[in-house]
Write a structure and sequence with these properties.
The longest helix is centred in the middle third of the chain and has 19 residues. This protein is mostly helical. The chain contains 3 helices and no strands.
């Protein structure tokens, strides 16, 4: 059970850090999709996209 003070602190943090919260949500959604819904074709496409993005970030 979460206390009222913790809930207020969580809301304040979310208000002050919207970009971080958005990033956390995207990451969570991606993991959920991969674990529960992705087909083999989806996974192949995601691997290719991840490799391309990794190469882009390295250079």
């Amino acid at each position: 059970m979460v206390t009222q003070a913790q809930m207020r602190a969580t809301r304040r943090y979310a208000k002050r850090h919207p970009e971080k919260n958005r990033l956390y949500q995207y990451r969570s959604n991606a993991r959920t999709f991969i674990k529960h819904y992705a087909s083999l074709k989806d996974l192949d496409n995601l691997i290719q996209l991840a490799q391309e993005q990794k190469a882009k970030l390295i250079n």
